[in-house]
Design a protein that fits this description.
By secondary structure, the protein is α/β, with parallel strands linked by helices. It folds into two domains: about 120 residues, Aspartate Aminotransferase, domain 1 (Alpha-Beta Complex); about 220 residues, Aspartate Aminotransferase, domain 2. Helices cover about 40% and strands about 15% of the residues. The strands form three sheets. The chain has a seven-stranded mixed beta sheet, with helices on both faces. α5 crosses α9. The longest helix has 25 residues. It is globular and about 60 Å long.
Length: about 375
Amino acid sequence: MRIEPFGVEQWMNTWETRCDLNLAETCVASLTLAELLQIAGKTQSMQADLGELRMTYGAITGSHALRHAVAALFKGQTAENVLITHGTIGANHMVYQTLVERGDHVVAVTPTYQQHTAIPRSIGAEVTEVPLREAVEWQLNLDTMRAAMRPDTRLIALTNPNNPTGALLDRAQLEELAQIARDSDAWVLCDEVYRGTEQGETMPSIADLHDKGISTGSTSKAFSLAGLRLGWIVGPRGLLQQAEIHRDYTTISVGMVDDYFATMALENADTILGRSQEIVRRNLGILVDWVAGEPRARMVRPKAGTTALVALDTDLPSYDLCERILERTGVMFTPGAVMGMEGYVRIGYACETEVLRAGLARVSDWLSRG
């Protein structure tokens, strides 16, 4: 199977260990295991728990305790509607393997995480992109979505909150999107890995609004535990049973230790998400102030997520610009070019606050001399 190179991941693989200040990171500032244990009140008992953990494959679909904890993040789901995966990236890939075949029609909201266009195309599906526009604050035009649909459309794919713009569909928009999908009997795959990082109230999940709605997520972004490499699919049981057939040929199960720590985290979701919301709200204010005071920068204020698309007024293409910034300042952004968004850079603002302040200050200093 041929597939196009994953632009963002190749950029990150090249530079993220070679920068001084990483403002390309998309996770909320990572927790240490010591911090997780303190939050969960497991500082004293963890060693004994792990000592008794038998290193088998464990529950292939994920432990009942973990699936129950994931289901609790939704309004109308149970553990039977949850399948545990290797990160959101594994969840998305498994959904495409399960649902999409050569010749199918997929509608994808872009810009997006590249999986949602590259994987269906690699399978042989036709992908129609519905682009978000800065002129309307990156909000999805539902009339454009409706026009892109066909009677045989198999699946709508989107990220909500959107990566990389930080745009957000509210309940009314999600309900209208669900109706558009019903009109073509289409599935909706909503990558909700940034759910929980909203600047206001947490938006509902597509899995709770559409009988063919599929939510994917993980412990990586809002839960600050990317090192666990643990995610999930939430959707109808019949879909999950079909997905299990595919996972038998790939990952079989997640690790027992990952399952243990992920369960611990999700059973304390309110505390961890409260920490994450405090970070993203404080740090977004810093980024907004920086853009307002930087004459060569502009952006649409994100409504959720951990990233923003920022336009910087220079003569350089975004890839060259980000390399130049790295070389001259040690600060890492992500070039819009690797996401099909030339003319912008993506800034991750959910890192440690002092890293964000220092990085933006270095970039301003460089811009003032350029």
